[in-house]
Input
Amino acid sequence: MSEIPTELRYAASHEWARLEDDGTVTVGISDHAQDALGDVVYVEHPEVGQQVAAQQEAGVVESVKAASDIYAPITGTVVAVNETLEDTPELVNQDPYGDGWFFRIEPDNASDLAELLDSEAYAEVCEADAH
Amino acid sequence: MTKQTALYSEHVAAGGKMVDFAGWQMPLNYGSQIAEHNAVRQGVGIFDVSHMTVVDIGGSGAREFLRRLVANDVDKLGAAGNALYGALLNETGGVVDDLIVYRRDVGYRCVVNASTRDKVLAWFSDHAEADVAVSERDLAMIAIQGPGAIAMASAVLDMADLADLEAFSAREVGASMIARTGYTGEDGVEVILPGTDAVTLWRALIAAGAQPAGLGARDTLRLEAGLNLYGQDMDETTTPLISNMTWTVALDPRERDFIGRAALEAQQAAGIDSRLTGLVLEEKGVVRHDQRVITDQGEGIITSGIFSPTLGYSIALARVPKQAKGACQVDVRGKLKRARLVRPPFVRNGQRVHK
Output
């Protein structure tokens, strides 16, 4: 069973989102997603300053198995990307909710976060995935 | 209903992520594909390859049967225990399957792919006359691969002289066949044996320190070693001559009339316009099967692409215009990335081949 922290919000496409104290939203992929992908070997980030829209492509994660699009869980502007993934993409597998984060968004409306899934609803998505 | 090998319970107990592969429940990995890959390059990895199809060919017509069906010539097998790699071709020269043929004391043993089992058994029975006996064998198969493989296998199998077994040759001990073959670019053996014995051997190898490795690592290892995968790098629409398999086609002696020969000779006469070769991506990212290759001689296609754990960048096999050389580009999901054509393999005995 994969880990699904209750304090985070989730997209059905397996990204997580965390509201930080400064109002930005950190985005990564879930433990379930990294496990399904297998060893991550390359992450392609959006540009800092790029506008991203909820449910639109904002990057790519390549694993030993396949390439998968990363979708922005929330509309806003990219303010930071996790450059350490360039040389150590395995952090996505090792610490998906911590050092393996992907990018940070300044949201147009922080209240949009409430539209994402909570951990319980996301657990059901993962459960359905398994069948 | 998917089939399980004799080692299925071992894989599940070891945390294997089981996937359907050609109708078999097989381990994709046991946690980390890259760790399994590295274990084979640096130590010893073991693979359950029991899904492969083992077919024994017997009868007084066995030799002539294989000389007609296999593009390589089984007459090169001078003695029992010798093996060769080759292809079954159709009349248009397309590859029906690739296989290893072992000569035995009596008759031959073929190991063909799992994904082609039904097709190849039908192909064999369609071409077998009354003097040829084709019998599929229900046997398990374990590949022991890596720089430490021979020492470990020698101890575990209690075969002190295993190191003397030459590459691409095999020895039979009781119901087991031990062959110095593999699909990783490392030294090692493949052991074909009854399922009950397979469980015992598997456990003994793990106790001796071998790392179980799944299908994922098997794919990255074989691609680094420049070895083709049937259905991806070649199939019924491609001949060996454009699949980096010309060396497996024995056109001499001229009088041997194997299936596909006329088509290959016609292709040679008409001029060969493409070839399968290696490709190294010179930017970050991963090239994948079916992506477009752009060269100054025209376009080609990636047949297999991976991230190479040994090299730390993406490599591929690609079918490109025959004259294409050196710098090229790959269309990776809409972005043109710099790449370079190189001669496979990419890794030999754990070492990088190209600077």
About this structure: Chain A is about 15% helix and 30% strand. Chain A touches chain B at residues 38-39, 41-42, 44, 60, 62, 64-67, 86, 90, 93 (CB under 8 Å). The two ends of chain A are 14 Å apart (CA to CA).
